[in-house]
């Protein structure tokens, strides 16, 4: 049994962290399996949307602290495997939906924040717990928290390492919906199915544009919008969308 599993339902791929006995903690093998799984679904033209979740009662509690040797050169560990996970999720040209079934701690919080849409169980919890073990945020947590919450709230969560509930996460705007635990995965897969049925090129370019905001100056974003709009307008999905609108029917995207 692998530590990361991929299942398919039509155009939706579900990537599951599968170390339930370790609360899906990330050791070196698991991280590389996750990178491989994400790259596999990214390169599969039959996959149009992705769900990321955890097996058992946790989503992911971050670094496996039992793998002490991995922290002897923590800079290399982060640069070599955690950063590629965050980058792969950000660059994935398909929407990624997080199905947060339980605690998301440290780098596990980073995985959630790297997803495009986030659904959480009522019993899920979140913590930027790095400081509790004398470490600093990684896996993109710093970037996402400041971007989404502002410096003051981001610093409070990072410095104090306080555990906060799914309801609080929704109030913060960090998750989109909170659901009963037995409905999270199904709803995430249903939502991914809606996205998978959409215009793939337009959604990929939309994801790229929105993620670039804050990194690029205004004029560069305007130029990106113009370039992407040209690509979208030249794609067969655009005339199909126009025709479907005029004929008052559902579009048949390529």
**What does the main sheet amount to?**
6 strands, mixed
How helix-rich are the residues, as a percent range? Answer: 40-55%
**Helical/strand content category:** alpha/beta
Strand content: 5-15%
Form type = globular
**Quick one: how many beta strands?**
9
**Which spans have pLDDT < 50 for at least 5 consecutive residues?**
none
What's the helix count?
10
**Roughly how many Å is the radius of gyration?**
19 Å
Average pLDDT over all residues: 95
End-to-end separation: 36 Å
Number of domains: 2
Question: CATH superfamily of the largest domain, called what?
Answer: 2-enoyl-CoA Hydratase, Chain A, domain 1
CATH topology of the largest domain, what is it called? 2-enoyl-CoA Hydratase, Chain A, domain 1
GO molecular function: catalytic activity
Organism: Pseudofrankia asymbiotica
Region (Disordered): 230-254
Protein name: Enoyl-CoA hydratase
């Amino acid at each position: 049994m692998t530590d990361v599993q991929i299942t398919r339902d039509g155009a939706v791929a579900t990537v599951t962290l599968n170390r339930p006995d370790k609360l899906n903690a990330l050791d070196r093998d698991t991280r590389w399996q996750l990178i491989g799984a994400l790259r596999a679904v990214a390169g599969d033209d039959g996959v149009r949307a992705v769900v990321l979740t955890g097996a058992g009662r946790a989503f992911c509690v971050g670094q496996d602290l039992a793998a002490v040797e991995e922290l002897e050169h923590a800079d290399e560990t982060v640069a070599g495997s955690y950063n590629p996970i965050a980058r792969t999720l950000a660059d994935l040209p398909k929407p990624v939906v997080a199905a947060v079934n339980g605690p998301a701690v440290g780098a596990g919080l980073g995985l959630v924040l790297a997803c495009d849409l986030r659904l959480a169980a009522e019993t899920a919890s979140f913590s930027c717990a790095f400081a509790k073990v004398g470490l600093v945020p990684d896996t993109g947590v710093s970037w996402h928290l400041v971007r989404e919450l502002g410096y003051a709230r981001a610093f409070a969560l990072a410095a104090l390492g306080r555990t906060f509930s799914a309801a609080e996460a929704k109030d913060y705007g960090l998750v989109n919906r909170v659901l009963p635990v037995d409905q999270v995965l199904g709803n995430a897969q249903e939502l991914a199915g809606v996205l998978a049925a959409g215009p793939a090129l337009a959604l990929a370019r939309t994801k790229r544009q929105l993620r670039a905001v804050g990194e690029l100056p205004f004029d560069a974003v305007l130029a990106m919008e113009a370039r992407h709009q040209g690509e979208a307008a030249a794609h067969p999905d655009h005339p199909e969308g126009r025709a479907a609108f005029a004929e008052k029917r559902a579009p048949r995207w390529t």
